[in-house]
């Protein structure tokens, strides 16, 4: 339906604002194509490995690349214009590379913003170091020496009480580096191989998810020792709620499941500020039907007594190369060197068995996935293309072809509905909703979007 | 600087979103409870109708309103949940007649995505739990314990992602919900789940039904004995239960609301999107459902909620039109309708656009709104003022003057009404049946026009005609004495009080008479150099029967003079200036201060402070009340003195806090007025207007008066043009009889007095009117209406074509002068430097008005600016352009004359989805965004870096709780330069819920004072249900929640005046300011609206 009609419905209150916004967002996403009005002038002379737009203003894009450099771009305000003013060029505001006195020596694998403000950013490198930079002075404020190549770093966007960088490295242990103290706060042991990817929960500031080269995805509550869940690709939620007739028998075996304390509502008023989820997820029992266990013991703490068979469960055959939690905190997407993409229910830990039409994924390198705000689409680097899959059906919605070589990372800006992708061709490409003055402007580049399933998006 | 803003509601929300019926206030009383988004109204059902009991604000937007009865209770409790995830349970306290809070809490979650389809809140019919669907994929359960207390809530995973409706089923041994949902492929199904409270999980329920009607959106649970659920679709209605499935086809319609008629659930009222009311009947044999029947009852407002009250009385709550109380008759009327509308409750919502017009140039705006939607669309004229409640009226042409007289000096009431005509005088009196009847006073001269009449001492009456002054006994009605004008002279003007008469004859003769018992004595005579135009000797000194001063208005030298009485010595002469003669003078005292009011022939009024001893006039002030001569008269209402200024724009002048205030009377032209206080109509006024004599009383308070102009179509944009005295609207007419929702789009011209359509321009097929503007261009003296349109093609997501149409109004017709095609929808039009500035999709485009060789005119594009997602809302000031974007907040552009280019100057980088913008002053811009917040940003011209200058700094944030569709500068009250509030700039806003509000930019000192008062009031005035005011007003969107800053809640502050004395004292102590001072300062603010 047309925008003007939607605006009319919003004016009269017939269309609630939330739905209006989702409609606009999804219709914009469905028109994403290689931007003909916005260019990022890449500062990198190596593969772009990591991309992130800051979470506070949605204004500054941070990139990290294999030439040991990291750069920041203003994606809202162009540096200059080309093409009779129609194409905005965004040149880096600054670059830190090998020439910098505290610059990394080898490839930057991960570059992330401090979630609370843009005054600080963090880079992780194959030179075994994690650097914490002061954005304004471009000096290193703190650094951490890691036991091996750093694959991925992550900070919790929810955290009000800790300043921990979770780091996945060549080492089997996941380390939490505390910016406040400059020291390691924890080491999390459980993986049997290097850890390619780490991801904080979007519903609890204490919960961390890690994906290892051992094919395991582990969930940790950092307030407690050990991992409390290992995802098992064979554990699905089919038949989770048996039909009424079978209930009697199943009831004896008990399908009891406790809900996490983080979801319960208090009967008192809370502060109006951001909710601090006290998600004591550890209470949760990950596997629903264990005939041997009696009801009373269901709520016992699982770890460290996690059964060894569970502890050996795998999420992918081969390495887990990418993790992404949906914004609502309910689902986890994982990519593996088995070229599979899986969707997991975070609360139960079940594999939802959505069959994503992936063909081939990069196997040797960590890949950075992105999702839209409403979690309806996931953007996945698939060799030289980026594909957008429908999260619920697994069907391919859009294909973004533009990079000449493999794509490593993508970032979706939910504020502008723009997709940023970085690849081995050293380019950072912007994919934006089409603008109607396209006919007037000049056709720009090689890129092309292939829309496979448009019907999903017309409303 | 307009940083410090005060937000207050002038017209409360009227959009009825929810309603329910139950025994809330007592087990025997039946109540109707209505939610108007942020307010709750409680009514009692009485044989006389609905009796209002309570109307309270809720600190939240109400998402759910449900009555329920916990076990062991004799009456119902009220459950309310708000959109910001607060809930409360209220119980009526009969002793204080107030609701008390039984429970309250927060049901927000960190996890989950807020539902698209609206929040759902339901209560198990057996009161075992409350169920809430607030986030996709989660069903929240608040269980009750055995004592009816709420226990800790928990979530259950709901796999169905696109939930459309959830209801509890009746008659299930365990609480069971039925879920209507949409799958990945958009097919709709229902499914049932049992809630296992112990396990905190669902168990698959007794039945499910797949592949329903594609428009199915509403579930109606059927109570025992039938049980099951009715599923309302767009083309079918289905009854479904574990063992029955019945379906009937219906005429395609979207059902918005239902109301259950019988306790056994066999009949339901259904209200659809076109306002048709149907009765759905479940036919059954005992407990077995045999089928469904549907019958059309008639038409109502488009219902958002239906509550069956009792005895065929039904309340229809509406979001798009007036809410109604209807009666369902057993027999259809002549049109075949069973619906009889008994009462209508005004609803201004949704206000999609409005304009502020000051038709009389008085500084007081009246708001003309585009209200309602679809067939219930209307224009509403909202104005502040004093209303007259008409009691009686008679047709009488040519009234030249009116006076009321008593039948004896001691009588408390008036008896006679003397009405003067050009060549006769008639006397009306109240008879025993309380009817006005013509009578006679024998001593009066009835064959001449009366110039003045008054009660005199000693049971006498005095009448002045052009030839004589007659003194008449009020008891015997006989003439007692007469004073004759000297021959050759006739009396031109006269005035009198109980003991004195002052009159003027031609040639500047001023004659002063005193009234004795049966005697008129000429005491003094004075000869002035010019003719006299008006006189007054109203006693304002200590003696209420004897005046010490006389005010005299003069022809020729245009002056007003004060003479002493009885010696007629000139004390003061005040030149009025200008060429307009004084037409009425009045000596009066308000709150112990003496004034001289002097009204001119052109509708202006001068007021002076008068020194009673010296006759000195000081502190001259001038205001415009109308355009025609004014006649001033005092009257009293509630034992205080007011002045009525009769003219083409009748006004009441009164005083508050020792300031003169002016309030419009909601009447058209009034030629004469006199107080007429009779036993049948106490405290009434007799008003002569347009061939009619009306007796009425005045409202005691200033309030908004609303006139409704039903259109039968939906007006979306409105604009006024002063020169042609017309309004132009863009409107849509829906044709519901046609299945493929065909629409017609118009630009219509309306007369600004009668509001009749006087000319119409039909737009093309698929062409919508998006914006309308009245403007003129450089080098062209004509005034035009410019209309921006969009071609909304079904296959296009965003319009790629539109037009700008330029019309001129000639002889009441819209004449198309020029048109310009655009590459998108013209969302906004502004007059800009003698040019036309249009917002077209992403672009801001400036057009010049060019004269072609053949003498015709055309719009020619000059320059533009890209860089918006969609530029919806545009305001301009000088060379500055403020743009409100679809989703990228506010940006500031500047037009550079030399380069002929538009450039971006600064931007707010927050991701606000805008719904309206306005420029408060050069540096401060006001925005409304779609999560119901207001915010202000400041231009930072003094920033040190480009980056700082390029950023609009957020200086104010506030949660209004209303969706604002439009801001306009203006005021609903008369803004006089001499009053304090006259200096405070105000912006009016209109919202979806029908709220008209005011944003006033206060001086900092005043703001700080009221901020402190607000903080103290928060402690004293507790929100209903324990909801927090501070949290309610905190700015809140998807990304952040922060405390309100630089905005004050005027509704809370003004509620200070409703507090009892003790609580006022408490606040006074904390504030260190006397209660009187506090009241005075708050009252001043109330005068802003």
TrEMBL record, chain A:
Residues 249-269 have a biased composition (Low complexity). Residues 249-282, 438-459 are annotated as: Disordered. Keywords: DNA damage, DNA repair, Repeat, WD repeat. WD repeats lie at residues 41-83, 101-143, 188-230, 313-354, 400-432. GO terms for cellular component: Cul4A-RING E3 ubiquitin ligase complex; nucleotide-excision repair complex. SUPFAM superfamilies: WD40 repeat-like. GO terms for biological process: proteasome-mediated ubiquitin-dependent protein catabolic process; protein polyubiquitination; transcription-coupled nucleotide-excision repair. It comes from the Eukaryota. PANTHER family: DNA EXCISION REPAIR PROTEIN ERCC-8. This is WD40 repeat.
UniProtKB/TrEMBL annotation, chain B:
It comes from Dillenia turbinata. Belongs to the DDB1 family. Residues 746-1058 form the RSE1/DDB1/CPSF1 C-terminal domain. Gene3D superfamilies: 1.10.150.910, YVTN repeat-like/Quinoprotein amine dehydrogenase (2.130.10.10). InterPro entries: Beta-prop_RSE1/DDB1/CPSF1_1st, Beta-prop_RSE1/DDB1/CPSF1_2nd, Quinoprotein_ADH-like_sf, RSE1/DDB1/CFT1, RSE1/DDB1/CPSF1_C, WD40/YVTN_repeat-like_dom_sf. It comes from the Eukaryota. This is DNA damage-binding protein 1. Its main location: nucleus. Residues 16-344 form the RSE1/DDB1/CPSF1 first beta-propeller domain.
């Amino acid at each position: 339906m047309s925008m003007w009609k939607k605006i009319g419905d919003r004016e009269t209150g017939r269309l609630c604002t939330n739905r209006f916004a989702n409609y606009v967002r999804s219709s914009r996403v469905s028109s994403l194509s290689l931007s003909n009005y916005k260019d990022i002038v890449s500062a990198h002379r190596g593969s772009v490995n990591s991309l992130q737009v800051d979470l506070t203003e949605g204004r500054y894009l941070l990139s990290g690349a294999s030439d040991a450099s990291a750069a920041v771009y203003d994606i809202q305000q162009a540096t200059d214009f080309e093409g009779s003013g129609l194409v905005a060029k965004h040149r880096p505001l600054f670059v830190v590379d090998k020439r910098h006195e505290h610059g990394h020596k080898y490839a930057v694998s991960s570059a992330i913003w401090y979630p609370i403000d843009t005054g600080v950013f963090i880079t992780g490198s194959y030179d075994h170091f994690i650097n914490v930079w002061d954005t304004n002075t471009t000096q290193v404020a703190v650094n951490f020496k890691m036991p091996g190549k750093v694959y991925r770093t992550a900070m919790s966007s929810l955290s009000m009480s800790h300043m921990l960088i979770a780091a996945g490295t060549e080492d089997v242990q996941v380390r939490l580096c505390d910016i406040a103290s400059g020291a390691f706060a924890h080491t999390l042991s459980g993986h049997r191989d290097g850890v390619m990817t780490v991801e904080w929960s979007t519903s609890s500031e204490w919960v961390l998810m890690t994906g290892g080269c051992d094919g395991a995805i582990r969930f940790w509550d950092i307030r407690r020792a050990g991992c409390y869940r290992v995802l098992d690709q064979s554990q699905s939620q089919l038949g989770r709620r048996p039909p009424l007739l079978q209930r009697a028998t199943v009831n004896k075996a008990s399908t009891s499941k406790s809900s996490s304390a983080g979801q319960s509502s208090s009967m008192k008023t809370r502060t109006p500020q951001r909710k601090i989820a006290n998600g004591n997820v550890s209470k949760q029992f990950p596997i629903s039907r264990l005939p041997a266990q009696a009801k009373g013991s269901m709520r016992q703490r699982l770890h460290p007594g996690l059964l060894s068979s569970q502890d050996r469960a795998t999420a992918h055959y081969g390495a887990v190369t990418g993790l992404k939690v949906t914004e609502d905190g309910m689902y986890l997407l994982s990519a593996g060197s088995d070229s599979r993409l899986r969707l997991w229910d975070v609360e139960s830990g079940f594999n939802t068995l959505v069959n994503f039409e992936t063909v081939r994924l990069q196997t040797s390198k960590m890949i950075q996935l992105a999702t839209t705000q409403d979690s309806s689409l996931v953007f996945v680097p698939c060799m030289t293309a980026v594909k957008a899959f429908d999260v619920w059906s697994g069907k391919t919605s859009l294909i973004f072809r533009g990079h000449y070589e493999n794509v490593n990372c993508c970032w979706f800006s939910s504020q502008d509905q723009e997709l940023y992708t970085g690849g081995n061709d050293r380019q950072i490409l912007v994919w934006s909703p089409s603008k109607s003055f396209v006919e007037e402007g000049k056709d720009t580049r090689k890129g092309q979007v292939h829309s496979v399933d448009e019907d999903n998006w017309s409303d | 600087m307009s940083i410090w803003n005060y937000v207050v509601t002038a017209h409360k929300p009227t959009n009825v979103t929810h309603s329910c019926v139950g025994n809330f206030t007592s087990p025997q009383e039946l109540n109707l409870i209505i939610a108007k988004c942020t307010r709750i109204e409680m009514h009692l059902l009485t044989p006389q109708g609905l009796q209002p009991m309570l109307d309270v604000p809720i600190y939240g937007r109400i998402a759910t309103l449900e009555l329920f009865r916990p076990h062991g209770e004799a009456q119902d409790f009220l459950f309310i949940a708000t959109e910001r995830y607060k809930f409360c349970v209220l119980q009526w306290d009969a002793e204080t007649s107030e609701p008390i809070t039984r429970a309250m809490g927060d049901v927000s979650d960190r996890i989950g995505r807020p539902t698209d389809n609206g929040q759902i809140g339901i209560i198990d019919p057996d009161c075992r739990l409350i169920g809430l669907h607030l986030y996709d994929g989660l069903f929240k359960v608040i269980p009750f314990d055995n004592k009816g207390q709420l226990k800790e809530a928990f979530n259950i995973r709901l796999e169905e992602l696109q939930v459309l409706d959830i209801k509890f089923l009746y008659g299930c041994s365990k609480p069971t919900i039925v879920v209507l949902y949409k799958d990945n492929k958009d097919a709709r199904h229902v499914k049932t789940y049992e809630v296992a409270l112990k396990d905190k999980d669902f168990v698959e329920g007794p039945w499910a039904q797949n592949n329903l009607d594609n428009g199915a959106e509403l579930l109606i649970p059927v109570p025992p004995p039938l049980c099951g659920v009715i599923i309302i679709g767009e083309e079918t209605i289905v009854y479904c239960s574990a063992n029955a499935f019945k379906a009937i086809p219906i005429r395609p319609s979207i059902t918005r609301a239902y109301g259950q008629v019988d306790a056994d659930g066999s009949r339901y009222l259904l209200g659809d999107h076109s306002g048709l009311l149907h009765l759905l009947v479940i036919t059954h044999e005992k407990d077995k459902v045999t089928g469904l029947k549907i019958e059309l009852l008639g038409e109502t407002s488009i219902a958002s909620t239906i509550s069956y009250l009792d005895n065929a009385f039904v309340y229809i709550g509406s979001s798009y039109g007036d809410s109604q109380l209807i009666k369902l008759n057993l027999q259809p009327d002549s049109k075949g309708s069973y619906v009889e509308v008994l009462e209508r409750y005004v609803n201004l919502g949704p206000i999609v656009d409005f304009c502020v017009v000051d038709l009389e140039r008085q500084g007081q705006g009246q708001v003309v709104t585009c209200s309602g939607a679809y067939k219930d669309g209307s224009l509403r004229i909202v104005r502040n003022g004093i209303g007259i409640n008409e009691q009686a009226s008679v047709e009488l042409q040519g009234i030249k003057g009116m006076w009321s007289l008593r039948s004896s000096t001691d009588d408390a009431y008036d008896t006679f009404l003397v009405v003067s005509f050009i060549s006769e005088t008639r006397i009306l009196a109240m008879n025993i049946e309380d009817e006005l009847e013509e009578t006679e006073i024998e001593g009066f001269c009835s064959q001449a026009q009366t110039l003045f009449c008054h009660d005199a001492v000693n049971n006498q009456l005095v009448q002045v005609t052009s030839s004589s002054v007659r003194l008449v006994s009020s008891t015997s009605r006989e003439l007692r004495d007469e004073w004759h004008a000297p021959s050759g002279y006739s009396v031109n003007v006269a005035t009198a009080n109980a003991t004195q008469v002052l009159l003027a004859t031609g040639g500047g003769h001023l004659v002063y008479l005193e009234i004795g018992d049966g005697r008129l004595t000429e005491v003094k005579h004075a000869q002035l150099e010019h003719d006299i135009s008006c006189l007054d000797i109203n006693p304002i000194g200590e003696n209420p029967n004897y005046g010490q001063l006389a005010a005299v208005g003069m022809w020729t030298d245009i002056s007003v003079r004060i003479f002493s009485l009885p010696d007629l010595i000139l004390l003061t002469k005040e030149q009025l200036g200008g060429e307009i003669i004084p037409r009425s003078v009045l000596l009066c005292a308000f709150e112990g201060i003496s004034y001289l009011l002097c009204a001119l022939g052109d509708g202006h009024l001068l007021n002076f402070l008068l020194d009673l001893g010296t006759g000195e006039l000081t502190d001259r002030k001038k205001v415009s009340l109308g355009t025609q001569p004014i006649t001033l008269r005092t009257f009293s209402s509630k034992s205080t003195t007011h002045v009525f200024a009769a003219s083409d724009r009748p006004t009441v002048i009164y005083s508050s806090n020792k300031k003169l205030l002016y309030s419009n009377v909601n009447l058209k032209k009034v030629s004469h007025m006199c107080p007429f206080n009779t036993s049948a109509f106490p405290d009434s006024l007799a008003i002569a207007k347009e061939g009619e004599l009306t007796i009425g009383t005045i409202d005691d308070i200033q309030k908004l008066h609303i006139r409704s102009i039903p259109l039968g179509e939906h007006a979306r944009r409105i604009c006024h043009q002063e020169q042609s005295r017309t309004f132009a609207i863009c409107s849509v007419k829906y044709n519901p009889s046609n299945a493929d929702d065909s629409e017609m789009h118009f630009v219509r011209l309306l007369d600004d007095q009668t509001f009749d359509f006087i000319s119409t321009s039909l737009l093309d097929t698929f062409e919508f009117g998006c914006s309308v503007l009245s403007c003129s261009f450089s080098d062209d003296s004509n005034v035009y209406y410019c209309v921006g349109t969009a071609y909304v093609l079904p296959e296009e997501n965003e319009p790629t074509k539109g037009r700008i149409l330029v019309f001129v109004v000639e002889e009441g017709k819209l004449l198309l002068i020029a048109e310009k095609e655009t590459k998108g929808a013209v969302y906004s039009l502004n007059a800009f430097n003698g040019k036309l500035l249009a917002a077209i999709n992403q672009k801001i485009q400036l057009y010049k008005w060019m004269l072609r060789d053949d003498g015709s005119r055309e719009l020619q594009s000059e320059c533009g600016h890209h860089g918006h997602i969609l530029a919806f809302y545009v305001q301009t000031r000088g060379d500055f352009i403020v743009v409100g974007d679809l989703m990228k907040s506010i940006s500031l552009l500047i037009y550079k004359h030399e380069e002929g280019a538009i450039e971006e100057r600064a931007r707010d980088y927050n991701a606000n989805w805008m719904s309206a913008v306005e420029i408060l002053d050069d540096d401060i811009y006001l925005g409304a965004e779609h999560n119901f917040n207001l915010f202000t940003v400041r231009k930072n011209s003094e920033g040190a870096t480009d980056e700082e200058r390029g950023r609009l700094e957020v200086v104010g944030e506030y949660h209004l709780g209303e969706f604002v569709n439009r801001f306009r500068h203006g005021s609903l009250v008369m803004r006089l330069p001499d009053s304090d509030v006259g200096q405070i700039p105000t912006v009016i806003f209109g919202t979806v819920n029908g709220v008209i509000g005011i944003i006033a930019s206060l001086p900092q000192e005043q703001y700080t004072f009221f901020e402190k008062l607000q903080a103290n009031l928060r402690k004293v005035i507790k929100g209903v249900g324990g909801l927090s005011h501070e949290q309610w007003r905190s700015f809140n969107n998807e990304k952040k929640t922060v405390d309100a800053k630089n905005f004050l809640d005027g509704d809370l502050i003004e509620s200070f005046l409703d507090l009892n004395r003790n609580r006022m004292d408490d606040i006074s102590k904390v504030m260190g300011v006397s209660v009187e001072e506090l009241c005075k300062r708050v009252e001043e603010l109330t005068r802003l609206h």
